[in-house]
Specification:
CATH topology of the largest domain: Rossmann fold
Protein name: Tyrosine--tRNA ligase
Function: Catalyzes the attachment of tyrosine to tRNA(Tyr) in a two-step reaction: tyrosine is first activated by ATP to form Tyr-AMP and then transferred to the acceptor end of tRNA(Tyr).
Oligomer: single chain
Number of domains: 3
GO molecular function: ATP binding; RNA binding; tyrosine-tRNA ligase activity
Number of helices: 17
CATH class of the largest domain: Alpha Beta
Largest sheet: 6 strands, mixed
CATH superfamily of the largest domain: HUPs
EC number: 6.1.1.1
Strand content: 5-15%
Subcellular location: Cytoplasm
Radius of gyration: 26 Å
């Protein structure tokens, strides 16, 4: 009797690699089967897939947390696909309500223009600018007009909109939801229609908006995009997501020495998550490094490799080498070759006021807390007396491991 069982044909090795790269570090890829079909079609036709990432220029600077999604874009770009860096200059006028417990204040056109000027320039430190399509959603959103906006709003209902987690919580918590906030996910979804996106990327907090793109593309009789969400990067504290408001971030335009030292400050456990989400090393290389640590290699050595990779990406290999030397010098109690020069009047001056006036602490209260914790040195000596007053002279003042100033104190 003949064997009538069927087996699925083996996946082409190139497609298998493309799927592995697509799935690296992701939270979700929906639906996987559709993405594989899109990859197969692209390979067969030679037509690149259109990969969309939309970012509202709510702030002028990007930190490493933002680059998690940008890294994924770069990986897909290196596979030969067309990435579209969409600046949400129109949607920024509304303000993204994702994850908010209150209405987000909209930005002014002037703020948006200022922030957008540096946004793509910084993103280009990760993406290949020569292979990146830059778009602004004011191109199509501004021309919608009142009629087009009403027609777009008719594509979705209020009941489904209220299923969105933040809207649901705010409604049942008796907190205000403005009608214009419902327009944000609709317009973000409409961006996918305008761009004919094959995939849209975002953080886990963007899932509702990304799925809206799928829905609206179907409403406009387009092939729906796939959705890829990336986890939110845990910040330097090892607890909360990286955020400027939490002060647990590394800005991608920060000084190379600061970037290197901050990376080395993360825990050994968190290091592996950062390797997965931030490093361009292969998963096999990362697995090999992890095995080496398990076999006794000092984890700090492996963390140094990560710090140098990140610093090289946003500065240069030479800057990363210099940052490592600077860090080693500081860890041995040495003073960097170049430190800020500050001249202050008012000698004799209390140590707390000196630290604040030199810009080494935000307040005298913070200065006192650092002194109590043994985190302040003057000319290499640990200061423990809050009441210390310094006479006129020149002092090398150190706060923590990374902040230095050469202070000239005058009467």
């Amino acid at each position: 009797m003949p064997d009538t069982t069927t087996t699925s044909p083996p996946i082409d090795p190139a497609l298998e690699e493309a799927m592995a790269i697509s799935l690296r570090g992701v939270e979700e890829l929906l639906p996987r089967e559709e993405w594989l079909k899109k990859l197969q079609r692209s390979k067969a036709t030679g037509v690149p897939l259109r990969i969309k990432l939309g970012l509202d220029p709510t702030a002028p600077d990007i930190h490493l947390g933002h680059t998690v999604v940008l890294n994924k874009m770069r990986q897909l770009q290196d596979l030969g696909h067309q990435v579209i860096f969409l600046i949400g200059d129109f949607t920024s006028l509304i303000g993204d309500p994702s994850g908010r417990n209150s209405t987000r204040p909209p930005l002014t056109p002037e703020q948006i223009k200022h922030n957008a000027q540096t946004y793509y320039q910084q993103a280009s430190l990760v993406l290949d600018p020569s292979k990146t399509e830059i778009r602004y959603n004011s191109e199509w959103c501004s021309s919608l007009g009142s009629t087009g906006m009403i027609q777009l709003a008719a594509k979705y209902n209020v009941a489904r909109m209220m299923e969105r987690d933040d809207f649901h919580k705010r409604f049942h918590g008796g907190q205000s939801i403005s009608i214009h906030e419902f327009l944000y996910p609709l317009l973000q979804g409409y961006d996918s229609v305008a761009l004919k996106a094959d995939m849209e990327l975002g953080g886990t907090d963007q899932k509702f908006n990304l799925l809206m793109g799928r829905h609206l593309q179907q409403e406009y009789e387009q092939e729906p995009q796939c959705v890829l969400t990336m986890p939110l990067l845990v910040g330097l504290d090892g607890v909360d997501k990286m955020s400027k408001s939490k002060n647990n971030y590394i800005g991608i335009t920060e000084d190379a020495n600061v970037m290197f030292a901050k990376t080395l400050s993360i825990s050994d456990e968190l290091m592996w998550n950062w390797y997965t989400l931030l490093s361009f090393r292969s998963l096999q290389e990362i697995a090999d490094l992890k095995e080496q640590v398990a076999q006794g290699r000092n984890p700090k050595e492996v963390k140094v490799l990560l710090a140098k990779e990140i610093t090289t990406r946003f500065h240069s290999a030479a800057a990363a080498e210099a940052a490592e030397q600077d860090f080693n010098n500081r860890s041995k109690g040495g003073v960097p070759d170049e430190i800020p020069e500050v001249t202050l009047d008012g000698a004799p001056l209390g140590i707390g006021n000196l630290l604040k006036s030199a810009g080494l602490t935000a307040s005298t209260g913070e200065a006192n807390r650092l002194i109590d914790g043994g985190g302040v040195r003057v000319d290499g000596a640990v200061i423990s007396d809050r009441g210390l007053k310094l006479d006129a002279g020149v002092y090398v003042v150190q706060v923590g491991k990374r902040k230095f100033a050469r202070v000239t104190l005058q009467a």
